[in-house]
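Thread title: Can someone regenerate the structure for this chain?

I was given the following input by a collaborator and told the matching structure tokens would be attached. They weren't. Posting the sequence so someone can regenerate them.
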Amino acid sequence: MKLLGYLITLTSLGVLYVSQANATVIVTYAEKPGIEQSTFINATTYNFDSLSTGLNTNVSWTGVGSFDQLYIKTADQYGGAGNSLYSVQGVGTSVSQTVLNLNNASAYFGLWWSAGDASNVMRFYTGLNGTGTLAAEFTTASLLKALGTAYNGNPNSGTFHGKDSNEPFAFINFFAVEGTTWQSVVFTNSSSSGFESDNYASRTEAYNAATDGAMPGVVLEAINGTQVVSLVPEPSPTLAIALLGGLTFTGSFMRSLRKRKA
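Best answer:
Regenerated them for you:
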């Protein structure tokens, strides 16, 4: 049985079902503060260093997809992994929204999400140009709230090190459960703040514990559309692997649970 049928949340008291999930994404954040690029194997990566500062339109990500528009800035206290160029939506730029259309339906995305604030919104859709089903929606307010203060402040060396000390900087991984994919990602910030990001990573294939090894990072939460699907009080990488791979053990697990209660 795949997770599309049922999600399981294990607690110290028993089992909680979230039934008929149409789309669910497991999220992890970088295991250590200061990590600025994906460690997930076989992911295709993209940075913005070959682009011009300012507005860029119809930008190709070779072999992966294309961006409708990007506003590129030089490194500052708010962004630029390794003090490089980075993308931003908002902050008085001409770009409040960027749409990434993928050539193929995909099941993994990652990015260095810097200077996170409550106005940053990221949405995954099953269709192109932000159409189809909303698979998952994330905001800095909900996504990065669990990060400790060790993630606060610009981690890059030099002039900007430690700047913007009240906002989190972390590489975030988004994993779709088996059978769920997206084909467009929409980055939005319509306020006076900015959605700063860099070092994008994408992969079409879903995470597979047997071939991909340990999941990179620490499990944070699972999202079905805009609904948070709790994993456990303190999320477990082992449970996340089970969720991502499909709950093939569900029947035997429930039978053993019933026997123990009998």
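Confidence is low (pLDDT under 50) at residues 1-21, 246-262.
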